[in-house]
Amino acid sequence: MKKYRIAVIPGDGVGPEVINEGVKVLNKVSELDGTFGFDFTFFPWGCEYYLENGLMMPKDGIDQLKEFDAIYLGAVGAPGVPDHISLWDLLLIIRKSFDQYINLRPVKLLEGAPCPLTGVKKEDIDMVVVRENSEGEYAGSGSWLYKGKPNEVVIQNAVFSRVGCERVIRYAYELARKEKKTLTNVSKANALNYSMVFWDEVFNEIGREYPDVRTYSLLVDAASMFFVKQPQRFQIVVTSNLFGDILTDLGAAIAGGMGLAAGANLNPERKFPSMFEPIHGSAPDIAGKSIANPLASIWSASQMLDFFGHEEWGKVIIAVIEQVLTEGQTLTPDLGGKSSTSEVGDAAVSMLSAAY
Ligand code: ATP
Ligand code: MG
């Protein structure tokens, strides 16, 4: 029997609460399928580890993760630890070390999910955002030119390499071709007169190899407006690291909230492990209360199954999430219910069993 080795990093805040439910679902899938299974290894890394050891993960953390087929991450961040440390020293270092240059974020209004927009049908919000995940505005390059008030000057560089732009844009074109969908390029070439001009150039250049793919280009400000006003404009979206980060939180808001938004950090060549996570943070405001919505984590588990080639199971999990939402009996407070995190996970597991 094929066994997938999964490194689980539950992390901080609601991370462990929600990831636990995703693990339950994955275990049930393997039990029902019978031809593959999962070996989960848990790594207690994150802010608690940092407060004890001064590091978010051990020095050889990346080496330890290297041998796994995938990483399943909860969330990192805690009030006592600066955000740029918790983010950089764990999440971003994993994304970079394992060259997870694609961040794939579905923005899809599932049956039964609440939508704050009026006059929108379920089919109107059904897109995938392909976010550049290795460089751009999050390249981590910059300097403190002058320290001290009042003339402090800080520089943060954005880095756009040809290889970096080409590979993510090509990935998006391939996806659009495979799924026979339109592709929208989101950039900001009018104001960012080097980086985004170059990005657009690469987008148009690669487009010549994909005459069958219908494309659009939008500035990020206009795209934000259309996400709200006319989300049906978008099918596949490709954009830079920062714009993708912001747009997908907006995407989460129009498609049911942070408790329903999943993301995959992919190394498409499979040279290194890919990482699957809910896109929300550690949510300290609701941590420890067992009320976090686990459906985003469960959705990211379905992305993991897709990536392993078990798309049929990925679809079953999405159908189960829709069933949880439409039945409406077992929902966490963010979706207007009174159930706990684990009650929602248990409901998903029992619907999964019933579906098979
Ligand atoms: P980060 O910087 O790590 O992205 P953040 O500051 O953006 O974190 P989140 O932790 O994502 O914040 O939380 C934003 C809001 O969404 C909070 O009010 C939080 O309670 C809510 N939220 C996040 N995740 C969930 C969840 N799984 N279920 C319910 N509510 C959630
Ligand atoms: Mg956030």
Describe the protein.
Its cofactor is Mg(2+); Mn(2+). Belongs to the isocitrate and isopropylmalate dehydrogenases family. Residues 5-348 form the Isopropylmalate dehydrogenase-like domain. By secondary structure, the chain is of the alpha/beta class. The chain contains eleven helices and twelve strands. Helix 7 (220-229) runs parallel beside helix 8 (241-254), helix 9 runs antiparallel to helix 10 and helix 10 (311-327) packs across helix 11 (341-355). The protein starts with a strand and ends with a helix. The relative contact order is 0.17. The structure holds adenosine-5'-triphosphate and magnesium ion (MG). Magnesium ion binds at residues 249, 281.
List keywords for this structure.
356 residues; alpha/beta; Isopropylmalate Dehydrogenase; 2 domains; ten-stranded mixed β-sheet; two-stranded antiparallel sheet; globular; binds adenosine-5'-triphosphate; binds magnesium ion; NAD; TTC_DH
Count of all domains: 2
Low-confidence stretches: none
Strand content: 15-25%
Widest sheet: strand ordering: 2-1-3-12-11-4-5-10-8-9
Bound molecules: adenosine-5'-triphosphate, magnesium ion
Major beta sheet summary: 10 strands, mixed
Structural class: alpha/beta
CATH T-level topology of the largest domain: Isopropylmalate Dehydrogenase
Task: Provide the CATH superfamily of the largest domain.
Answer: Isopropylmalate Dehydrogenase
Count of helical regions:
11
Number of strands: 12
C-alpha-based Rg, rounded: 20 Å
- The average pLDDT score comes to 97
What assembly state would you assign to the polypeptide chains in this entry? single chain
Helix proportion: 40-55%
CA distance, first residue to last residue? 20 Å
Order of helices and strands: EHEHHEHEEEEHEHEHEHEEHHH
CATH class of the largest domain: Alpha Beta
The assigned CATH architecture of the largest domain is 3-Layer(aba) Sandwich
